[in-house]
Specification:
The complex is a heterodimer.
Chain A (H helix, E strand, L loop, with lengths): L1 H25 L10 H10 L1 H35 L3 H13 L7 H8 L3 H25 L3 H9 L4 H38 L5 H10 L3 H29 L4
Chain B lengths: L2 H26 L10 H10 L1 H35 L1 H14 L8 H8 L3 H25 L3 H9 L4 H36 L7 H10 L3 H29 L7
Helix pairs in contact in B: 2-10, 3-4, 3-6, 3-8, 3-9, 4-6, 5-6, 6-8, 7-8, 8-10, 9-10
Classes of the chains: A mainly alpha, B mainly alpha.
Amino acid sequence: MSGTSAARGVLGAVLILALWEATARGFALPAYTLPAVTQILAAVWEHRAALQAAALVTGFEAVTGYAIGALAGIGMATLLVLARPLRVGVLPLLLAINSVPVVAWSPLVLLWFGVGVSSKIVMVALAVGFTIFLSALAGFDRVDRRSVDLMRSFGAGRMGIFWRLRLPAALPLIAAGLRVATVRSLIVAIVTEMLGAYGGLGWIIYQSVTLIDFVQVWAAILVASTLSLAFFGAVGALERRFIFWR
Amino acid sequence: MNAAAMAALRLMGGVILAGLAWEAAVVGFGIRPHLLPRLSDIFAAIALTPGAYWAGLQRTAAETLIGFAAGTAVGIANGLLFFRAPVLRDMLLPVFVVSQTIPVIAFGALVVMWFGNTLMAKAVIAFYLTFFPVTVNTLLGLNSVDPRQAALLRSFGATPTQILFRLQLPMALPQIFVALRLGASLSLVGAIVGEWFGDNTGIGVLLLQAMYNESVVALWAAILCAALLGTGFYALVAWAERRIVFWGAEQ
């Protein structure tokens, strides 16, 4: 059953690629309409040095910002659970910051932190931090009121309830947030690079658009997608290792 | 008079209070205007050229709404198609799922190159950012329907169309709205980023111009517009969800 659907999936992907290649070659489509798959792959190979350097920059920004954002997000959610009175003041402020579409912060962060790598790390940390903060908070809060009361009646303290009840209950949601955040970290890094950068995949995409070099845009998108898939896969593998009871 | 009016009043009170706190904090702590200007200065900047902000707001809203509506309609139709044609689903769904894990927004660059810097180009970006998640979640929702319920309805003589509209689609709605809420914020981001590739009006343009002029006040004014649009749009989707999925109120 699942073998058939997997085979169909592979077949579908191959068919799409073949159709793409045949359309682009058969109708001799110009590169600005649709470059052939082989043409894009050739461009990736031809510019492999530049693309690799750019992927390293973007990957570094995404992973560093991701780590900072994840720690900050989980830390902030933990703080708001353990020190409940803080919520009244802090939560509305955080939700107000989050109500702005994240990319709208990019120009301001660029002005504050400059065109270099640090502004991208800040942006990624911001986007990832909020994603994970919101899922962690939802996870900590979703425990049954009665379970909390039961543990308290047995003399468990606030920390005991947090470690033994809230954290295990929240882990699946935190893990889901961590997975979604991988994709988001690369999107935000690339989008911020488009606004201004000294290097990176987003910068290459923006430069290629202004130079009207379509094949190069496709090549950079292909590399960015591969990077994103690898990051997503790595976080998913770590998750399966550590949340083994799911 | 009713709960909704009370909630609106409370929300308005909260916003006014937050605005006063902002103003007081900037003046009180002597925050440099380079970091955070006074709220009154930002409003003054908007009042100076209200036309530009209003036009930008309308343009970006139109791009987002057109793309979002089309993405919703085509996404649900596509989810139904995949549900009815398992072979097609098996062949194409993996591509859709993978599209959720790659930065599809980067394709915005290509869309702008294809369509030029038109309203249409941004609507297309907003469209596909909504379309993929809605398709996946529609299928997910349709598949979560208990087949025994469908069998029961069939035994009463219900036609497949009736089963679809009375059972399967309503059961799928909560899942679909999860995707719609995601699509609401994604499509706005897509529209703003699309405008960065060179346009004349829109929130993204206002952001870009303010950045090039290094005008922090204008930047904050554009950020406020973006927040207004994002919150309004999200609230609209959430309101529709409460009205349509009235039985799923516990979320």
